[in-house]
Design a protein that fits this description.
The chain has a single domain, classed as Divalent-metal-dependent TIM barrel enzymes (TIM Barrel), CATH 3.20.20. The protein is built from 11 helices and 13 strands. The protein has an 8-stranded parallel sheet with strand order 6-5-4-3-2-1-13-9, with helices on one face. Helix 7 packs across helix 8 and helix 8 runs parallel beside helix 9. The longest helix is centred in the middle third of the chain and has 20 residues. The termini are far apart.
């Protein structure tokens, strides 16, 4: 595959046109809702958890199309051996094309800390992630999603992460690829920290993946203000994760995390997303308690909810 042609429309849309999108926030046309599906919505099936039908990762595009969704977001944990695999990526890309599916990104975890205090460890993490860039390129994705893991004071972590992320973005340029960070635990659950990191790195192929439900810091058991957080991250967003849990009884759009107990007003999140001028894909990531042991039902509920809210507020 020629890297010069990989993801060109995505890369350009995520960089050169970002300023245009920002300048058109007040344009009167109705923003289109483009729904994608995060593979983690089906994690119990893909992991083969008790009581769930075991799913084959290669069937993800077929399942996505069956739900009338046109784009996939992959998870590295569902690759063979949880490792980047070019042969697997090529087969998955073929199946995506067969079902008319657009591939967007791979969510990458457990490949070293890009903000490690030791320079050699940061460099190793960058090298580990490069292999995922190659796998994502074979899938014709526009991005990989990485984590902002580090140690030290907030200022120290920002400096360390800026170094690791800048090095990885330089690698990603070779593939016309973006590097996205998600609010996903630790200091990254603070959306305002994420915005300052964006400014520190200041590269056109570096962006955020704001997640509606990940402003909970498990380490400190603290919930950062999720609405301030999403607002801070959205100007840099190249993808959005519409995390859904289970609806709180007596409400229509308020979700409660079944393990940690915090609540998220999804309507407020959608409204902020629309108001920000964001024009990319909105990924369903269902993580409810799922008592019926049917993740498809949770995805369908989430899709209906997003469509209702988008129509109401756009």
């Amino acid at each position: 595959m020629s890297h010069s042609n990989i993801n060109r429309r995505h890369f350009i849309a995520g960089s050169a046109l970002a300023a245009l999108a920002s300048s058109c926030k007040n344009f009167s046309s109705k923003p289109e809702l483009k729904i994608s599906l995060a593979q983690y919505s089906l994690h119990r099936g893909f992991f083969g958890r008790p009581g769930y039908k075991k799913l084959d990762s290669l069937d993800f595009p077929k399942i996505t199309r069956s739900l009338d969704i046109a784009a996939c977001e992959y998870v590295g944990a569902f690759f063979p051996g949880r490792k980047p695999d070019i042969k697997f990526s090529k087969e998955m890309n073929k199946r995506s094309q067969d079902f008319g599916i657009e591939n967007l990104l791979i969510m990458v975890d457990g490949n070293g800390n890009l903000g490690d205090p030791l320079s050699k460890n940061r460099d190793q993490a960058v090298a580990n992630h490069r292999k995922w860039l190659e796998a994502a390129a074979e899938l014709n994705c526009h991005s990989i999603r990485v984590n902002a893991r580090s140690k030290g004071s907030v200022d120290e972590q920002r400096k360390l992460l800026a170094d690791g992320m800048s090095k990885l973005c330089a690698e990603a340029k070779e593939f016309n690829m973006n590097v996205l960070i998600e609010n996903h635990g630790g200091v990254s659950s603070d959306g305002e920290f994420m915005a300052t990191l964006m400014k520190e790195v200041n590269l056109d192929n570096f962006g955020t993946l704001p997640d509606f439900g990940n402003f909970w810091n498990r380490e400190t058991e603290t919930l950062y203000d999720p609405y301030a957080g999403i607002k801070a991250m959205l100007p840099y967003a190249k993808a959005v994760s519409a995390k859904t849990f289970d609806v709180v009884p007596g409400t229509k759009y308020v979700m409660k995390h079944h393990r940690f107990g915090f609540e998220i007003d999804v309507e407020r999140m959608v409204k902020l997303t629309i108001e920000s001028g964001y024009q990319g894909w909105v990924g369903i990531e269902y993580e409810g308690a799922n008592p019926s042991k049917n993740e498809i039902e949770g995805i369908q509920m989430s899709k209906k909810l997003l469509e209702e809210l988008w129509a109401k507020h756009s």
